[in-house]
Amino acid sequence: MLLQRTELFCQLARAALLWVVAVPAFGAAANCSDPGSTMLWDVEGAGLVKPGVSVHLLGSIHVGKTDFYPLPAVVDERFQQADTLVFEVDPRSMATPAAMMLIQQRGLLPADRTLDQVLDVATMASLRTVLQQMGLPELLVLHMKPWMVTLTLTAMQVQMLGYDANLGVESYLMQHKPAAAAIAELESLDSQLALMESLDPAVLLRYSLEDLTNTTGQMELMVSAWRCGDNETLADIMFSARDAGGDLSAFDKAAVDQLMHRLFDERNAVMASRIGQYLKTGSGDYFVVVGAGHLLGKGSVVDLLQQQGYQVSPVRAP
Q1: What digits encode the pLDDT tens for the residues 170-199?
Q2: Stated pTM of the model
Q3: For residue range 283-318, what is the model confidence (pLDDT) as tens digits?
Q4: Is the link from the previous residue into 70 a cis peptide, with omega within 30 of 0?
Q5: Where does the chain have alpha helices with state H?
Q6: Residue-by-residue DSSP string for 85-101
Q7: Total domains in the fold of the chain
Q8: Residue 94's domain spans which residues?
């Protein structure tokens, strides 16, 4: 029974691995203040880009609903021209039994340990409250590491709100990709698992539990901003914890800053460097799909590429 439960949670956590650190994209919706805005960028660089190379950046949401599609025509046009589709992690590698087994192996506590033995009393109490609110028995997560609990509960909450990993942008693009397009990745499943393992487990879980109580309202706001390509609103929602500043104690602010640095800043630098290599030494048309949080604000992939001298221009829908 434990194995069956773990397999279920691994499937959910696999879908959430990117979701928990990256949010929305592009789209069209009624009542947008700027209906032409998208979360698609073209990257150019006079004197820097190798002739014959082009790069497009698309923000992504890793879960979805049927009414997210079809994609706006301007996005589909760039997508269909791609010679190489570049994801954070190759979706094919995330959907294998080997991936589920890897998450399962690294996401479970040692056989002689349970979650209540590794968490402080206050965090465990908060977890029990959230589990009760979600109608889940404690036994379902008792043998998981804290980061696995974070991913699993996040995925389950999003699923309860009607979102489906099979309808995420990556899944949609893989189903509709040009037949000849190659697939590349900026990271790997192993590197993302290593990232989760490197984070302070108690801090990550504690802040995740606080966020879970606000998920419904936040999801509605984010999806609305996503459909309107409202970068500013998305950034405000995603980085509100980091920007809270004066509302946090010095200890909590340092903990949040460290989490955000590991989840965004460090990864943004790696992503920007690899995209820069496509521009300098690659060939053909690259369509790069990353979580929209990696494309927003100071220190984002967009910002870092601009600092390197590239022109990164938002693409507007006609």
Answers
A1: 889 999 999 999 999 999 988 988 988 888
A2: 0.85
A3: 899 999 998 889 999 999 999 999 998 999 999 988
A4: yes
A5: 2-19, 73-80, 91-94, 97-107, 115-118, 121-134, 146-160, 169-176, 189-198, 201-212, 215-227, 231-238, 240-243, 250-260, 266-281, 301-307
A6: EEESS-HHHHTSHHHHH
A7: 1
A8: 2-314
